[in-house]
Amino acid sequence: MSQATTARPILPRAFYERDTVTVARELLGQIVVHEPARGETTAGRIVEVEAYVTQYLGERDRAAHSDRGLTPRTRIIFGPGGHAYVYFVYGMHECLNVVAEPAGIPGCVLIRALQPVAGIEAMQRRRPGEKRLDRLCSGPGNLTRAMEITRRHYGADLTSGRLTIRAGPPAIETVTAAGRIGIRHGGEWPLRFYLTENVAVTRPLKFRRYEADLSP
């Protein structure tokens, strides 16, 4: 499984240098692959994301880190698409984001959940308290821990190197749009996208009222 996964084509820069919402939706079904210099390769299929944009329906997206402007922390978001923005939150979780848009236009996509496809034993060693396979990479902090993605990957070029996103098999599942999770501003905006029936998706009950089926 690992060899087949790592043989898939890496998504090119042009994939990311589009509007953030389009990138977010089209990341569903693609595969995050981490091939460390030492240790086992791990991979997971993207099943849930959140878009963070400059504006939504004419209103500032104050939940976006880039809304604070260009800082040492956010500089990567203002650069070209296709790089990793990894940050630390709540004093315990590292979160993987994908930079979208051309250089100079901030936008990023939080990877919220993966469906494990390779290196599962390594993931289980890194998350020994989790017995369910579908929960190993469900949630931003869980997936980075299972995939051994840390702040060392801040700025990593996802189109080359050891941390990449590769083209997954064509997704045939329906997609749901829902409110973003754990934020004070714009939580009701339907900028969270997930594969509707996938078991690895996070589904807090209080956010279900914002969900809408976006299948063709």
The number of distinct structural domains comes to: 1
Can you count the helices? 5
Q: CATH topology, which one?
A: 3-methyladenine DNA Glycosylase, Chain A
Order of helices and strands: HHHEEEEEEEHHEEEE
N→C terminal distance: 31 Å
Approximate helicity band: 10-25%
Annotated CATH architecture: Roll
Mean pLDDT: 90
Portion in beta strands = 25-35%
CATH class: Alpha Beta
Q: Helices and strands: which structural class?
A: alpha+beta
CATH superfamily: Methylpurine-DNA glycosylase (MPG)
Shape: globular
Total E-strand runs: 11
Explain what this protein looks like in three dimensions.
The protein is α+β, with helices and mostly antiparallel strands and about 220 residues long. The protein has a single domain (about 1-215), classed as Roll (3-methyladenine DNA Glycosylase, Chain A), CATH 3.10.300. The protein has 5 helices and 11 strands; from the N terminus they run αααβββββββααββββ. It has helices at about 1-5, 15, 20-25, 120-125, 140-145; strands at about 30-35, 40-50, 55, 60, 85-90, 95-100, 110-120, 165, 175-180, 190-195, 210-215. The strands form 2 sheets. Strands 1, 2, 5, 6, 7, 8, 9, 10 and 11 form a 9-stranded antiparallel sheet that branches. β5 and β6 (about 95-100) form a beta hairpin. The longest helix has 8 residues, at about 20-25. The chain is globular and about 45 Å long.
